[in-house]
Amino acid sequence: MAAKILIVTGDAAESLEVLYPYQRLREEGYDVHIAAPARKTLRFVVHDFEPGFDTYTEKPGYTWPADLAFSEVDPGRYVALVVPGGRAPEYLRNDPELRKIVKSFFDADKPVAQICHGPLLTAAIGGLSGRRVTAYPALELDMQTAGATFQDAEAVVDGTLVSARAWPDHSGWMREFLTVLRAKAPVT
Asked: In this protein, which residues make up the domain named DJ-1/PfpI (predicted)?
């Protein structure tokens, strides 16, 4: 039986930040499940950078079915957690069931990969205090307020926590996360 990895997300997650790790981790041999507030078809978005805009733009992205609802998740069945970005973490951090799930991964020192706005969720459970992280650069102050040391880098590894700025950093992010996974939770 393959080791299981959990991705937690919701509507308005960045399409690439959900689907790239989903496919890459499956390619590596892991069994990957996507959890959301409810079992439903999720509506992702595409964040892109266009000349003349001071920030990213947002367009409709892919749809994808959630495998299970947060209320159905048993964190003990999973060896690692992935927290994608987009706008989803802004509202998901208010979900008490999800906060319990995320906290259990940090309490057990299991590998956690976060990207873009995903650290808003890990900050909500106190998981960033005293850690080195990166995130979407506009979140630097949020990361500092959460007690983290912000680094503007492609990927930052702090123990079992691996963070990245945004989807252009995917290859570095997954390379570092797979190094942690292979050491802490190899495919069986």
From this structure: 4-178
